[in-house]
Specification:
Blueprint: E1 3-5, H1 11-22, E2 30-34, H2 41-45, E3 49-52, H3 58-65, E4 70-73, H4 87-95, E5 100-106, H5 117-129, E6 134-139, H6 144-156, E7 158-161, H7 173-184, E8 193-196, H8 204-215, E9 220-223, H9 226-235, H10 240-254, H11 264-269, H12 276-285
Parallel strand pairs: 1-2, 1-4, 2-3, 4-5, 5-6, 6-8, 7-9
Helix pairs in contact: 1-7, 3-4, 4-5, 6-8, 9-10
The structure holds NADP nicotinamide-adenine-dinucleotide phosphate (NAP).
NADP nicotinamide-adenine-dinucleotide phosphate binds next to helix 1 and strand 5.
Amino acid sequence: MKILVSGASGHLGHLIIRNLLERGVSKEQIVAGARHTNRARDLEAQGIKVIPFDYDQPATLEAGLKGITHFMMISVSQNDTPVHQHDLVIEAAAKANLEVLVFTSIFRAKESNLPLAPIMRAAEEEIEALGIPHVFLRDNAYLEMYLSNVMQAIQTGQLVSSAGDAKIAGVSRFDIAEAAAIVLTHPEYYGQTLELAGDQAFTFKDLAQLAQTYRKAPVTYQPITLAQSHQMMKQAGFPKHDLAVMDQLEKVTASGALNTDDHTLSEILGHATLTIDDLVKRYLMS
Ligand SMILES: NC(=O)c1ccc[n+]([C@@H]2O[C@H](COP(=O)([O-])OP(=O)(O)OC[C@H]3O[C@@H](n4cnc5c(N)ncnc54)[C@H](OP(=O)(O)O)[C@@H]3O)[C@@H](O)[C@H]2O)c1
């Protein structure tokens, strides 16, 4: 088994490598692919081989995938990422002799209206069309995104949101990375599409209550409309394109589309998923 983890300089890439090592995969079996190798120096210092692997540079992709049997492909998606961003890397993967490609997709990718869904759908479709053996990890919204809401509410005593009473079954990157390491090393998962969400869904009102327990003073929850939220972000100077992406994200969140009672993730992990409270505790202790 030779595992290439791309996007290794990022949060998820780092955590997946850490989980692979903890599960007994040797350093020699892991290759860390990074667009900017200097951002993965810490991995090199741990004895992991770091190679250049840039989704826009085909030469790095073909060279990087040589001899690889298991490819942990981290999706990339910024507000301005083109829909077909992953095509070159998937084409290179199709030429490699892979036992599996594990791809970090997005929750309910086929029907999702999230701004990043078209990029993930396009990648999933390309992987399927080229007949690459795969697992799709369809991650729900990362809990880490909401950590800043809680921390700000602890500091200011206020939490403003357009999400209404919508529940969010968010997942921590820690749990996603652990699941990725399990899936990579257990062939019984190969061929599956896994929708990964947290066990305990929460509302923004719950986040305000959580902040209150740490602030030890009242935290006011102020529900606002999508239009009010748009106006606030516009006044804060968000560029037009980012504004459109944020509007769409808030609309999907308020619709309740990020809620589920699917427990696939905790079944894979063999333990309950981390909650937003767990993350706040970890953050405050670090
Ligand atoms: N946020 C969510 O709720 C959510 C939900 C589902 C899925 N996801 C997906 O999960 C992915 C990973 O999350 P994360 O927290 O690990 O993100 P992150 O910390 O921003 O890491 C992204 C990684 O991708 C690399 N990268 C960017 N463009 C690249 C390119 N052209 N070629 C090669 N590598 C490139 C970055 O490299 P550099 O260091 O060179 O920039 C970085 O290592 C996200 O990108 C997103 O697609 C997110």
